[in-house]
Amino acid sequence: MRDLFLRAARGERTARPPVWLMRQAGRHLPEYRELREEHAFTEAVSNPEIAERISLQPYERYDTDGVVMFSDILVALEPVGLEYRIESGVGPVIDDPIDGPEEALALADRDAEPVAESLAYVGELLNSLREHLGEDAATIGFAGGPFTLASYAVAGGPSRSHLPLRRLRAAHPEAFRALLSTFADVVRDLLSYQIESGADAVQLFDSYAATLAPADYRDFLLPLHRRILADLDAPSIVFVRNMGGRLDSLADSGADVVGLDWSVGMDAAREALGKRPVQGNLDPAALFAPPETVRERTREVCEAAGPAGHVLNLGHGVDKHTPIEGVEAFVDTARSIER
Predict the structure, then answer these.
(1) 237 within a domain of the structure (yes/no)
(2) Catalytic, out of 2, 7, 16, 23
């Protein structure tokens, strides 16, 4: 229910917690895998008709209160001229990554293409989803955060330690700052464009940013998060993994809702954040438990979060091997709660 989601995101008391599933929730569904056999990932992302079908698959099966658009955080690389591809067994690959401070500064000096032109397919998708869903569910957009985008752009692909980017930060802080600032501008424009195109809410995924030292996070990244999220015309959610001990930084980001991964207890988060709306935070692995256990764990999260300002979600994305009955138990429990 669209209004239920929006009221929770504003911090209001709701009769039950609205529920949706982060990232590409359809990855565990057989109908998603069947469709992907016919279409490559980048084709599915850039084709609004295919992306709409994928976006709606979890909603049609589970009747969630929010529907996140099917896309990828790396689409934000396109306006600055960086191309990516998905390599089986590896993940996203950038064949011409940023090599050294000179290239970082050169990219920062380059004029980005308007997102409404280079990423027009994102706007088309959101327009279609908003029209399809009406008042039945909230349409949710998202973008990758500047640190996460820069990590891929510098490393050329996934990096467990994000050392290539952290090394740039240590040796060439001004190039690091300029690179992240460039991505922040693109992400701000992208989220604004998503809202203009029909998104009811947007989420900023700077998933890897906690690998920065706390002082570096507050110096380099927090001002960019504030710049991205300031005065957006729709509720915003910020999500960074492994920030359990630094929830104050997430609260200072300017986001309306603080997304929580499963590394922090909901009780502790509520104590640290007060009345700030929160989202989360069941461990995605819990969905592999028997359905009754999933229901019990879900109720525990909801009880700890309380009746006001809580959007129920997992603490990260749905694993592609997740059993359908586990997701059904999770969503059904949210819909059965009476406050």
Answers:
(1) yes
(2) 23
97 vs 9: CA distance, rounded Å: 37
Is there a domain that residue 5 lies in?
A: no
Cβ neighbors of 310 (< 8 A, separation 6 or more) are 8, 14, 17, 277, 278, 279, 302
Residue 170 lies in a domain: yes
User: Is 36 a residue of the active site?
Assistant: yes
Is 72 known to be catalytic? Answer: yes
Q: Which residues contact 296 (CB under 8 A, 6 or more apart)?
A: none
**Does residue 204 sit in helix, strand or coil?**
strand
Total structural domains within the chain: 1
Token pair in block for residue 75: 């689409």
CA–CA separation, 146 and 276 (whole Å): 24
State the catalytic residue, choosing from 36, 130, 218, 226.
36
Which of helix, strand or coil describes residue 141? strand
Pick the catalytic residue: 32, 62, 72, 246? 72
Residue 313: asked if its preceding bond is cis (omega within 30°), the reply is no
| pTM for the whole structure | 0.96
The answer to whether 152 is a known catalytic residue is yes
Alpha helices in 37-113 (DSSP H): 41-46, 48-62, 101-109
The pairing of beta strand 310-314 with beta strand 138-144: unpaired
Residue 271, burial from CB neighbour count under 10 angstroms (0-12, 13-18, 19+):
exposed
Q: State the burial class of residue 215 (Cβ atoms within 10 Å of its Cβ: 0-12, 13-18, 19+).
A: exposed
For 73-98, how does the pLDDT look when each residue is reduced to its tens digit (9 = 90+)? 999 999 999 999 888 778 889 989 99
Nearest of 105, 220, 82 to residue 153 by alpha carbon: 82
Distance (Å, whole) CA 25 – CA 313: 11
Residue 317 lies in a domain: no
Angle at 84 between CA 79 and CA 85, to 5 degrees: 145
Domain that holds residue 108: 71-259
Q: Annotated catalytic residue: which of 84, 152, 193, 217?
A: 152
pLDDT tens digit string along 251-275? 999 999 999 999 999 999 999 999 9
